[in-house]
């Protein structure tokens, strides 16, 4: 950005950069928690499912951190960062619509293979996009020096956001709204972050409205015809 860091526009932009890892950290943990509930009717709730899901998520995050550092060194603005966040939100929105049919098909592959493939398709792309945030924001904020202090601040903010995402998902979103609605809320929050980051570029920012406007129009993903009862409980999603 051309705005000076001491100008009102510059300070607002820096505040946006600092808020981004908080919000995306919350979305990452919310998606991971919801994934366990989403998978339970198809793969069960065993340690194999937990291990497979967490391993793939960690691999996606590792890839995102590495790519985020490389992209940040090549980009002089935050356009790529917020465009990537927006792209991840759009992808996740599409997945919400097809996820049950996809999981029903993958259930035949077993606990490990099925869960791993499901996570690669359903969550890994969005997780990778969100993982770009921390290294990218560190690069944006550290161009004037103090790299160590900046890195510590960004990762601390991301961790605080992750804690908030865990608590909000566990004690409010899932109990009050259910699994699918929580996924849609995560999509909306990611899209809002991308939209806020792109507001300085009006033409690009218009694209950010697509997932937000589309959210109410997303139909409920249908359960198999053999399903006679579905309920959300404290312990799991029970069909």
Structure description:
- This protein is mainly alpha-helical and 239 residues long.
- It has one domain (18-238): Up-down Bundle (Growth Hormone, Chain: A), CATH 1.20.1250.
- The chain contains nine helices and two strands; from the N terminus they run αααααααααββ.
- It has helices at 8-43, 47-74, 79-106, 111-122, 124-131, 133-141, 147-177, 179-197, 202-214; strands at residues 231-232, 237-238.
- Strands 1-2 form a two-stranded antiparallel ribbon.
- Strand 1 and strand 2 (237-238) form a beta hairpin.
- Helix 2 (47-74) runs parallel beside helix 6.
- The radius of gyration is 18 Å and the shape is elongated.
- The chain starts with 7 loop residues before the first helix and ends with a strand.
Q: How would you summarize this macromolecular structure in one to three sentences?
A:
This protein is 77% helix and 2% strand. It has helices spanning 8-43, 47-74, 79-106, 111-122, 124-131, 133-141, 147-177, 179-197, 202-214; strands at 231-232, 237-238.
How would you describe this structure in keywords?
elongated, 239 residues, mainly alpha, Growth Hormone, Chain: A
Class from helix and strand fractions: mainly alpha
Low-confidence stretches: none
* Relative helix content: over 70%
Q: At the third CATH level, what is the topology name? A: Growth Hormone, Chain: A
Which sequence of strands runs across the widest sheet?
Answer: 1-2
Q: What is the level 1 CATH name?
A: Mainly Alpha
Number of continuous helical runs: 9
Proportion of strand residues: under 5%
List how many beta strands DSSP finds: 2
How many domains, as an integer?
A: 1
For the record, the CATH architecture stands as Up-down Bundle
> What is the general shape?
elongated
Query: What distance lies between the first and last C-alpha atoms, to the nearest angstrom?
Result: 50 Å
Radius of gyration equals 18 Å
Largest sheet: 2 strands, antiparallel
Helix/strand order = HHHHHHHHHEE
């Amino acid at each position: 950005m051309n705005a000076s860091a001491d100008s009102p526009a510059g300070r607002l932009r820096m505040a946006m950069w600092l808020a981004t890892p908080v919000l995306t950290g919350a979305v990452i943990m919310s998606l991971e928690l919801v994934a366990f509930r989403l998978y339970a009717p198809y793969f069960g709730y065993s340690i194999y499912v937990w291990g497979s899901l967490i391993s793939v998520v960690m691999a996606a995050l590792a890839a995102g951190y590495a790519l985020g550092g490389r992209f940040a060194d090549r980009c002089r603005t935050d356009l790529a960062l917020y465009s990537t966040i927006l792209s991840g939100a759009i992808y996740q929105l599409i997945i919400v619509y097809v996820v049950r049919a996809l999981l029903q098909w993958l259930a035949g592959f077993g606990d490990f293979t099925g869960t791993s493939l499901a996570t690669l398709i359903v969550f890994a792309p969005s997780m990778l996009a969100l993982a770009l945030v921390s290294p990218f924001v560190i690069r944006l904020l550290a161009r004037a020096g103090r790299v160590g202090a900046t890195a510590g601040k960004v990762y601390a903010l991301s961790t605080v956001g992750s804690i908030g995402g865990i608590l909000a998902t566990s004690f409010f979103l899932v109990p009050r709204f259910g699994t699918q609605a929580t996924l849609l809320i995560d999509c909306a929050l990611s899209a809002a972050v991308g939209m806020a980051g792109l507001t300085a570029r009006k033409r690009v920012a218009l694209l950010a409205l697509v997932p937000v406007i589309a959210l109410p129009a997303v139909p409920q993903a249908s359960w198999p015809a053999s399903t006679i009862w579905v309920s959300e409980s404290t312990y799991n999603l029970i069909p």
